[in-house]
Amino acid sequence: MGRLGARTAGRRRPFGDVGVPVIDPADIAEVAAACLLDDRHHGGVYELTGPETITPRGQTEAIAAALGSPVRFHDLTRAEARAAMARSMPVELADDTLDILGSPSPAEVRVSPDVRRVLGRDPRPFADWTARHVAAFR
Predict the structure, then answer these.
(1) How far is residue 45 from each of residues 40, 72, 88, 94, 115, measured CA to CA in Å?
(2) 3-state secondary structure of 54
(3) What are the coiled-coil residue ranges (predicted)?
(4) CATH assignment at residue 18
(5) Closest to 124 measured CA to CA, from 43, 58, 27
(6) What is the pLDDT of residue 138?
(7) What is the C-alpha separation between 24 and 30, in angstroms, rounded?
(8) How far apart are CA 67 and CA 37, in angstroms?
(9) Rounded to an integer, what distance in angstroms lies between the CA atom of residue 130 and that of residue 124?
């Protein structure tokens, strides 16, 4: 979920308008704890997602709202993203990753009811995570 600082003027991501249902890591931890502590979940398989799809541009807007100041979003071209990724992984893997990020499958954008099923509440939205971690973006 990235970090902004004095050296970073904004967020740079490809596919700024392609959303997926990002899940709060705290929700993952709570589901894991519930599954470990409650025998009803033994052998269960759960698909964990956030409550709604959110785009990288929408994530940037949530960060800006939490900070109370503007944060620029730069939508990387595929070539820019590929070049950046190729510095830390094989080019073929970068291409495959960009294919997945740019065109998520219907299953990858589906909002699952499983967090609610396990915890009895909806998953937290990205804005909640951002508000709790706003210090990381200052």
Answers:
(1) 12, 39, 33, 30, 12
(2) strand
(3) none
(4) 3.40.50.720
(5) 27
(6) 87
(7) 10
(8) 37
(9) 11
Residue 122 vs residues 14, 27, 100, 114: alpha-carbon distances, Å: 29, 9, 27, 9
- 103 found inside a domain: yes
Range of the domain at 65: 10-137
User: Does residue 45 fall inside a structural domain?
Assistant: yes
What pTM was computed for the model?
0.84
Q: Structure tokens of 125?
A: 């939205």
Q: Is residue 14 part of a domain?
A: yes
Task: State the total domains in the chain.
Answer: 1
**Domain assignment of residue 84, yes or no:** yes
* Structure confidence at residue 89 (pLDDT): 96
pLDDT in tens, 95-117: 999 999 999 999 999 999 999 99
